[in-house]
Give the backbone structure.
Amino acid sequence: MSKNLNTEIKRFKMLRQEFDMTQQAFAEVLGIKNSTADIERGKTRISGEVVAALLEHFGINPLWLFGKSEQKHLRPETKSVLPKTVTLNSSGNENIVLVNIKASAGYPHNLQDPEWYETLPAFDLPLPEYRNASYRGFQVEGNSMYPVLHSGEWVIARAEEKLSDIKPGRIYVVVLADTVVVKKIAVAGEKIRLISINPEYPAIETHPGEIREIWQVVSKISGQLAPPQDNLGAWADEIRSELKEIREKLS
């Protein structure tokens, strides 16, 4: 039966499979009721709204979808990743919203909801380096960026405009369709690699269409004054080793 399907239906299904999404999940992203099953079976045509959603969320070239072009994505490096909502203080100046670990779970789903942002704490930094740009604070979760960043610390990050502004070696907060991560970024054509500093964590591969916002980390707020716990463990091992040598000499 698949041989009789139109090119756009075959490519539509192929996209969903490439994104590793269920029919229900893909439908929710594209604003389709129920699931994409009827489209994939050729019972329902792909509407203009769905074509627009594929372009907006995944950067899919409509001409490619309908078999009129071999260019699958439309210039991913120019895709805007600016914040969808900014908040102002009582003086009308933009402030810095703080997104803690708990709030980050809902952040990708509330990017354009000003009322949701009002539930988050915010503050101002009256320093010249924090002017003339949008800044946001994010709490770090996990140890993928250890030893530079520790779980529970906060980073202050500046909004980036597009993927072509990404600089090698810098650390970024990347807002994906369903999560927020802190990583280094490597852009390779239509592939985006999100890289951890901690070698125990593998890189995440995604594509430009999955990225909603990008914030470059410019500073961090840490309450950690003592050496990291693993260093204390190393010192303890060294002390135990020295005590063992002393006991052996005295015996």
